[in-house]
Design goal:
The chain has three domains: 91 residues, Fumarase C, Chain B, domain 1; 253 residues, Fumarase C, Chain A, domain 2, CATH 1.20.200; 58 residues, Ribonucleotide Reductase Protein R1, domain 1 (Orthogonal Bundle), CATH 1.10.40. Helix 4 packs across helix 5, helix 10 packs antiparallel against helix 11 and helix 14 packs across helix 15. The longest helix has 37 residues. The mean pLDDT is 95. Strand 3, helix 8 and strand 4 form a beta-alpha-beta unit. The protein has 19 helices and six strands. It is elongated, with a radius of gyration of 30 Å. By secondary structure, it is mainly α.
């Protein structure tokens, strides 16, 4: 006869290899708090509905709180034979309080229990990710303000294109993170649905009060189809998708950070505390953290692909395959939280080499577009002006000089429209100042972007506070 809590139908004990293969306690134990909170709400509801006695409910609550304290203190030994966090806690509860503990599982299944735990866990972790996103956004805004006058080359095809403000470049990443924040809001909304009461798949014969449990656990809504309640993993896939896009953004930031702090660019210097050295080469200062974030992006994307593949062929309702939803989710949560936290430090700690950025926009041809625009404003068609500016660049390359070094006579040989004011027109400051279209890189537009960014941060902080207030 099997000794499992579910073993009444079985004549043999589970093979030890099978036991180890199917057990999830090694990773789902991190949801112990959610499991206990869900059980506390369930027991309270069972008593309120007259399904168990008030005395049994009180004994269950007291026992669960003692178990919670033991786990918090690291004094709880998890048993692989008990498979998962649910059975480990239930067995310890029954050992503690006797028969009353055996009544806790009335009107529920591990199927809706694990769904509840995961909903609670994802909801809590989304709130934590939101808080870290705000911290990184704040670091970006602070750094953009600190260096708001610094001009750098903007790039297309990784070739110098036009002068832009360094603050403008940073605020592009801020905009990405705003979208990330909104995506995780959607994840929170889908995680904020209460599945308990669905039973194994079809509901329960007991007259329970699911709305009461939802209120106890501060859920915004509950599932209205029991099959959907136990089989839905959309919110996990959405979390992994939102996390993958976020990590792609951080990976792009990592790539630029790595380039910028290389000797070839020398646009920024990272703080010593955020870099490592070489065991062989004494001169090295390596941006290892940025490289790790870039590398871990593939790991997170892999977890999304694994989850999509796991769910794509599953019939309703619960299947053991769904146990595979957790390890990738947990690893993604850890990776995303680390990456956000560490990047806030990197951004705040970086030193911008203003003189090198300045040199990069004066000793190049990034003012060529403005040279063409100068002619257009004097009446020349753009296509003709584009060709004239291109010939100017060609002449400079032949003489090994820059546009700023051309004589007025050389300019006028290309077009009589050129005058002394051409030098001012192609200066980096003018190139930046004149790009004053909405969302552009001008000093005025970037000041507006910074103002808007601060307002968005305040709005996001309010959302974080609301989410924190809902945690149980």
């Amino acid at each position: 006869m099997s000794e499992k809590l579910w073993g009444g139908r079985f004549a043999k004990s589970t093979d030890e290899m099978i036991n180890e293969f199917q057990a999830s306690i090694a990773f789902d134990k991190r949801m112990y708090r959610e499991d206990i909170l869900g059980s506390l709400a369930h027991a309270k509801m069972l008593a309120a509905c007259g399904i168990i006695t008030a005395e049994d409910s009180e004994a269950i609550a007291e026992g669960l709180k003692e178990i919670l304290a033991q786990i918090d203190a690291g004094q709880f030994d998890f048993d692989l034979d008990l498979e998962d966090i649910h059975m480990n806690i239930e067995k310890r509860l029954t050992d503690k309080i006797g028969e009353a503990g055996g009544r806790l599982h009335t009107a529920r299944s591990r199927n809706d229990q694990v769904a509840l735990d995961t909903h609670l866990y994802v909801r809590r972790e989304v709130a934590a990710v939101h808080e870290l996103l705000v911290e990184l956004q704040t670091a970006i805004v602070e750094t953009a303000e600190k260096y708001r006058e610094v001009i750098m080359p903007g790039y297309t095809h990784l070739q110098r294109a036009q002068p832009i403000l360094f603050a403008h470049h940073l605020l592009a990443y801020f905009a990405m993170l705003v979208r990330d924040f909104a995506r995780f809001q959607g994840v929170y909304e889908r995680a904020d649905i209460m599945p308990l009461g669905a039973g194994a798949l079809a509901g329960t014969t007991f007259h329970i009060d699911r709305e009461m449990v939802a209120r106890e656990l501060n859920f915004g809504s509950l599932y209205h189809n029991s099959l959907d309640a136990v089989s839905d993993r959309d919110y996990i896939m959405e979390f992994l998708a939102a996390a993958s896009i976020l990590m792609v953004h951080l990976s792009r930031l990592s790539e630029e950070t790595i380039l910028w702090c290389s000797r070839e660019f020398s646009f920024v210097e990272l703080d010593d505390a955020h870099c490592t050295g070489s065991s062989m080469m004494p001169q090295k200062k390596n941006p290892d953290v940025s490289e790790l974030v870039r590398g871990k992006t593939g790991r997170v994307i892999g977890h999304l692909m694994a989850m999509l593949t796991t769910v794509k062929g599953l019939p309703l309702a619960y299947n053991k395959d769904l146990q595979e939803d957790k390890e990738g989710l947990f690893d993604t949560i850890d990776t995303v939280k680390f990456s956000l936290a560490v990047y806030a430090r990197i951004i705040r700690g970086m030193k911008v080499r203003e003189e090198n950025m300045r040199r990069a926009v004066t000793e190049d041809f990034s003012g060529a577009t403005d040279l063409a625009d100068y002619l257009v404003k004097k009446g020349m068609p753009f296509r003709e002006a584009h060709a004239v500016a291109g010939r100017a660049v060609h002449d400079c390359l032949g003489k090994n000089i820059w546009l700023k070094d051309m004589s007025l006579a050389d300019f006028q040989a290309l077009s009589p429209l050129f005058a002394e004011d051409v030098y001012e027109a192609i200066s980096p400051e003018t190139c930046v100042k004149n790009r004053n279209s909405l969302g552009g890189t001008s000093f005025t537009q970037v000041a507006e972007q910074l103002k808007t960014a601060k307002e968005l941060i305040k709005a996001e902080e309010n959302i974080v506070n609301e989410e924190s207030a809902k945690q149980v």
